[in-house]
Amino acid sequence: MTSHEAPPPARATSRDVARAAGVSQAAVSLVLGGKWPGRVSAAKAEAVRAAARELGYRPNLAARSLRTGRTRTALLVVPALTTEFFARVYTGAARIAADHDFGVVLYPSPEGTGPARDPFASASAALDGVIASSMAAGALTALRAAGLPLVMLDSDPGDTAASAAVNLDIADGVRQLAAHLTGLGHRRITHLAADVDSWTFAVRARALRAALAGLPGAVLHRQPTALSVEAGLRAAHTALTGPGPRPTALLCDDDVVAAGACKAVRRLGLRIPEDISVTGFDDLALAVAVEPELTTVRLPAEEFGAAGMRALLAVLDGTPAEPPALPVTLVPRGSTAPPPAANATRPGGR
Amino acid sequence: MTSHEAPPPARATSRDVARAAGVSQAAVSLVLGGKWPGRVSAAKAEAVRAAARELGYRPNLAARSLRTGRTRTALLVVPALTTEFFARVYTGAARIAADHDFGVVLYPSPEGTGPARDPFASASAALDGVIASSMAAGALTALRAAGLPLVMLDSDPGDTAASAAVNLDIADGVRQLAAHLTGLGHRRITHLAADVDSWTFAVRARALRAALAGLPGAVLHRQPTALSVEAGLRAAHTALTGPGPRPTALLCDDDVVAAGACKAVRRLGLRIPEDISVTGFDDLALAVAVEPELTTVRLPAEEFGAAGMRALLAVLDGTPAEPPALPVTLVPRGSTAPPPAANATRPGGR
DNA sequence: CGCCGGACGTGTTACGTATAACGTCGCGGG
DNA sequence: CCCGCGACGTTATACGTAACACGTCCGGCG
Does A291 sit within 8 Å of B286, measured CB to CB? Predict the structure, then answer.
């Protein structure tokens, strides 16, 4: 390291680099900017680069933004970061962003009540664009009004406010899950459905209904629940102790809910998967931490965030190509098996 | 696909506000800046505020930063965001930051090998200060060199590079945990210790050793493990099947590891807590998702992040007051009980 | 030989804000 | 009466960068 003196490191400016390299400040900008390839001779360009390296030059981003009007910063709006899923979405988005010298700043949409804090004040950064989960309904109205490029994650295709949309093929995941359960012989299924008004959950309910529609004897119930272990426990208890024949499978909208459901099943003296099958969604770390491990649908969370960022970059480049829905995969594990009443015609559990 | 003809509302500037209010641009800055209270008459000040509201004026942050030299942005360096713990730390830090018109941008230190990406390039934002977990060793050297105010989270007090430090009272948590286990009658304890070279984990090992030092018959072993369910499973298996008398309690450095340990215990045909007690650390959502629920040490993750941000703000204000260590609390749950060999002199399990 | 045009650099400007420096005005004390 | 001072406003400037608009030099073509 060279910058030994200068207790206040007094960041080098492009003018300092220019002086050191014996050129004008404009030349420094031309060289380091990367555009205008042939604009400066190779010799001087190299001198500039050397001087910049020597001085540890870092362009002043505030000045650059002021000049260019762009900030190379995107806002990621998520319902709540404390969930592992969105932490992974962020990671994926940030990775792609970094490859393009972009930053990602988070806006965790306040889950509780109260007036949503102004997303822009809160972000305390000027933004080039926004990537928003459809689950963060609260903050969306303010964002739409801003006129910024907006990429929606898992949103209603009919929503026209977005500049682009990236979707997971949730419906296909539900179909795989339904096929898995019905293939095992399950007919009475209760859907522990997230009580969140969001496209991604609406689609699950619809796809599930469609998947079971043609099947003789299929009975589908719906039990709303919040997205927590405890809420899942309560919902499962309600579903299992209600009137009518007991379901043989609980299809949960989230691994966390499924974990709660497992606890409820056991508290009723029932076994998983022998008496009741339970399935989750997302494939969080939690899915393999509980016993038995959860049959679940793996959502490519990081790739989801990455795709969102790519879409935003494309929009900013003026080349918005609509990406296909991201595939999801069923991960069969120990929490599903043929129902007790099923005859042994299908030996294939686990 | 909307912003085609780019009717960008051409963000209002302070000069526009000045014109609308019939004052000079400087007056606008004086009024909206909030400092210099008596500098402008109440009447004109109100006119300025009204005009600003009317035009939807938002100060250009790039210009402000360029002028003031500060950005009101802090960098939070975490080992990996996908862990619930650090997601909560972020949330706490962001909350305090928002109260002071600060933003928080994340730098997830690359966990894998490879040269750590430049934190500053990656953040793509100019920074006023840094809050860093001691677990993110990789990125620290570059950060120290930057000469930015640096607040360390859970770091060695001997480390002098930091402007301030915020610590959890981890040692006390370990003491509580050890007292809980020995009080139940446990004497042979194996520590499933994180194989991460970080102050916070070193302190756990040391405190545990100290807590068991005076106890006759106490036997403490150490089994290193990575921080994942699977690694915890393997480590617990090793610990339980090794030579010598089997431990009666597994003290894990993390809830995730404890979850893995539980699985190992059961695969060996042993019961929790009757045969083996297992304890975790952190009190993540996962702790109550597994069965039995984990006895663990609750770390105030959000408050931890909030305290870090407060400390950074204090440093920036020039009033760095050293905060006390944040208290942690033992949460006894179902995964601990007296060991099999213990006589019934102490009836108090759960 | 004169002129044109490409290659290579440089001077200059503007981005929007915060604030130092500089008036101006009215009033009260000397 | 005049000076000075406090209250109120304004003018001017600088922050560091990107990029436009000009040169200047030189080789080649008519």
Answer: no
